[in-house]
Amino acid sequence: MDHFHGDTFNNFMVLKPKEVSLFDLIHLLYTGDVCANKAVDCPDDTDKIHSMWRRWALVVSLWVQMVLLTFETPLAMLGSAIEHWINCFYMSGSSFKTLFANILKGKSCPNKDSSNFRSVIGILDKRIDLDSRIKPDNGNYHAHLSIMAAKLAYENENAIKTIVTDNWKMEFLRYFNCWNEYEREASTQAFMFCDKPVDTNLVVVAFCGTKPFNALMWCTDIDFSWYEISGKGKIHGGFMKALGLQKKTGWPKEINHHNKHLYAYYAIREKLREVLNQNKNAKFLVTGHSLGGALAILFPSILALHEEDDLLKRLEGVYTFGQPRVGDHDFGKFVKGFLDEPKKRYFRFVYGNDMVPRIPFDDKTLLFKHIDDCLYYNSLYRGKVLKDQPNKNYFSLWTLVPKYFTAIIEFIRSFVIGYVKGPDYSEGWLLKFARVFALIIPGLTPHCPQDYVNCTRLGTPVVPHDKSN
Hints:
- By secondary structure, this protein is an alpha/beta fold.
- Helices cover about 40% and strands about 15% of the residues.
- It folds into 3 domains: about 1-70, no CATH class; about 70-105; about 110-460, Rossmann fold, CATH 3.40.50.
- The protein contains 17 helices and 12 strands.
- Residues about 465-469 have low confidence and may be disordered.
- It comes from Rhynchospora tenuis.
């Protein structure tokens, strides 16, 4: 057992893919003795895992992380090359002839840190303007603003600042590039903005989600490690590490702010305090897509753990899109205890067959549970409130045919939606290609922000029960 875990948490299970060997995987699968396996860190008195299904889940998680870490560099290089050439293509007016002419003339493509450079996520859905029909007094405004901010969080700092300032006519406050102490890398990004520079009413914190070609982020998503906080429940270890969990001290209320690294939770909390202290009537939203959604719900949870009541009183809401499960049943009760009072403030959006909200699995093996109801939208963008999304664990033979049928419908829809709903909803060639890929693996393409943006613009309005009424 590593001392920095044992000194902070009494109960935990941490997977260590960087130290695992094939022998460790075989040993774990056939014995279940986690204490005697160097691929797992846990208390010395942890019982053997008798469930074969649970052993398989841990072994698969470790193995996939091993593969991702092995290909971390080439995957990043591939992603960088794809983004570079697609940006060059769009800079050339989507003309291959102009692209080749620019190459021959030596014209450079946009720098990856420039304001007009777009990530793969930004290219899949090129919309950057807010829907002018959805005004601040519209009941759907916060949801729409949140998904647009969550989508924008995938971009570089200059692009974010330009769009917030020039397109949204709002006030950019800060970009956060934060350190993950376990990965030894700045792999967590977020940004903060407000509706206006003076007499601010609303502050928004948006966390970046899983970048398609970032192996470390994918490892975070499929890491089934967990930590138990006494009286609060078990929480997904990968997401806590991304938010700023400290190796030696866990979640201290304060850390040394002279540290050369920024840690997401502490840096964002400090800036939020500053802004809210200057604007006594302002409230704040927290949002994120995918991994960003997990961080968005964990952020106020750690505020509650630290009894930051003054901040929590000014929390207007948490909006997550395609968010994975982050903890067990006890953790869910803890979160609902402060987010459901004085009114419902947590809104979890799930679109169609999106695979990510259905992991880690909700069963007796891994014990992960979603915290509250979901706002579920189908392929026609018709929404309803459900206890959990249909086919809650994704892998089910009973839903195999409906999933592929829906993927076909979405592929056909991609060619006609622009004509039916207007050019703002047209899907580009890259997203159409992704729809083809969904005919093989139906759960990945529905995870793209495009459909979540459409849910807030075209979807049936879904107003969850408000306990304050």
